[in-house]
Design brief:
single chain; 476 residues; alpha+beta; SH3 type barrels; Rossmann fold; 3 domains; ten-stranded mixed beta sheet; six-stranded antiparallel beta sheet
């Protein structure tokens, strides 16, 4: 079906080799005497057999079948073919799907932008490389590897040229540049700006889009919490600016990678720090051994944006952009993306959640504050969002009464998913430990929520906020 996603299916039948190296699309299990088999050899010397009509790929040729053509990889994802009897060479096979003249530029190896993904909106705006043409005027498009080796089947009409500012890696010269103006000429070439500001004219089949999750390393993992050992990474926003964020991969994330499989989707928790900076896992060495942090480190991908604005300012738009971009990763569960933050990060939690409420399944603002002028806006945008607000009754830095007004406004908009957990006898600086370290209460609460496609939420929540021994629930 056009618009459906194709994931690598490991096994000893050659389908994974075909998808990862030959990019031949779907694997189907049935064959037949009329199949047209191609012996495919990649540049890495991998050999498998492909029936290009049924799109079947196998490691061994079926009994009784014969090879009619051989395929050789000219460049990554682009093959030429030779008839084994006549020895004639060509760039296509008889009956292979060919794009109409309007979309003739969309050939294997072409770098493209997915202008619309009707099957899954997470992929709209992503860039990738065409790996093969499919029937029904569709193309298989491979996304950057950092997203999880995702291959999508997209109609030709939903594909376009790379957008201005897209980072690309150029074949042959091993350089990374930026698409200058998003215009492709009649020779299928685009202007690319190199790091030295030189402009190079490059054909769209000799470039590969780079992920905006710059140089992310999914093999870098921990099997126990260690002080300040989270990955420091760069996210490139749509305006081309580089932004720092820290990432922790859950314990056991690498186990499936070691078997050649991409990890199953994990819950994602975005944490926004306070004015004192830091990440969820680097507030104090002592906290690393706490029940709460041990729990969250084992069960969540944790992303902590490095906030460069002051506590008086709202969060910059790239944080919401990062949250939306991460949804496209196959190793992130798009139904279980959560947001939390403490103090200045609590304000950021309100603001970022309101900016992209369709991304998050639930949010937890801790010791938060907000701009009173934004109360109506926040309550409108978050009127369906499950919220667990954690605060101290005796907080003088971020006083309780202004937050109570926001909670009331949310309830006034019909949000019955607002829950409040207030800790007595602690000051502003102690709320972090009570919320995140003393127990796993808020993380367990988050995992009871999923966001489904569309406006509806599914939530297994109690009528009262869960309470720890050092907290007491109050009604608003």
């Amino acid at each position: 079906m056009c618009g459906s996603s194709v994931a690598s299916v490991p096994g000893d039948d050659g389908a994974e080799v075909a998808r990862r190296r030959g990019y031949v699309g779907y694997y189907c299990s049935d064959g037949g005497a009329g199949c047209s088999w191609v012996e495919v050899e990649t540049k890495k010397g991998e050999v498998y057999f492909w029936d290009f009509r049924s799109m079947k790929s196998l490691a061994q040729l079926p009994a009784g079948a014969q090879v009619h053509w051989q395929a050789f990889e000219a460049r990554p994802g682009v093959f030429y073919y030779q008839d084994v009897k006549t020895k004639e060479l060509g760039w296509s096979l008889p009956g292979m799907a060919v794009a109409s003249s309007r979309h003739a530029w969309i050939e294997p190896g072409t770098a493209v932008a997915i202008e619309q993904c009707r099957y899954d909106g997470r992929y709209t705006g992503q860039a990738g490389v065409v790996v093969c043409r499919r029937p029904n005027d569709c193309a298989a498009v491979k996304l950057p590897e950092q997203l999880g080796d995702v291959v999508l089947e997209v109609p030709y009409g939903d594909l376009g040229v790379l957008r201005k500012g897209t980072h690309v890696e150029l074949h042959g010269i091993e350089q990374v540049g930026t698409i200058e103006d998003g215009v492709m000429d009649e020779h299928l070439k685009m202007r690319v700006r190199l790091p030295d500001d030189a402009i190079k004219i490059v054909k769209v089949t000799t470039m590969v889009p780079r992920s905006r999750l710059w140089a992310i390393d999914l093999w870098q993992h921990l099997d126990r919490l260690q002080w300040c050992k989270e990955q420091e990474n760069i996210f490139i926003s749509v305006d081309g600016q580089h932004h720092c964020y820290y990432m922790h991969l859950p314990f056991g994330f690498d186990q499936q990678l070691k078997t050649g499989r991409w990890p199953e989707p994990w819950p994602l928790l975005i944490f926004m720090h306070g004015a004192g900076r830091g990440t969820l896992l680097s507030q104090s060495k002592k906290a690393l051994k706490s029940a709460g942090l041990e729990y969250v480190a084992a069960r969540f991908v944790i992303v902590s944006p490095k906030c460069t604005w002051s506590w008086k300012k709202p969060p910059e738009s790239w944080v919401a952009e990062l949250a939306r971009y991460l949804r496209a990763c196959s190793w992130v569960d798009p139904e279980r993306i959560y947001l939390t933050g403490c103090s200045m990060g609590g304000m950021g939690t309100w603001e970022v959640a309101a900016a992209v409420p369709d991304v998050f399944a639930a949010v937890v603002p801790v010791a938060a504050y907000h701009n009173a002028d934004n109360t109506a806006h926040l309550s409108e945008k978050l009127r369906e969002m499950p919220v667990l607000a954690v605060h101290s009754i005796h907080d003088v830095t971020c006083p309780l009464p202004p937050e109570e007004e926001l909670w009331q406004a949310l309830r006034g908009k019909g949000n019955q998913r607002v829950q409040v957990c207030c800790a007595p006898h602690v000051d502003h600086c102690e709320v972090f430990d009570r919320a995140y370290c003393d127990s796993a209460m808020i993380f367990e609460w988050l995992l009871r929520h999923r966001r489904l496609a569309g406006p509806a939420f599914t939530a297994a929540v109690t009528s009262q906020a869960p309470a720890t021994a050092a907290s007491v629930e109050i009604s608003v």
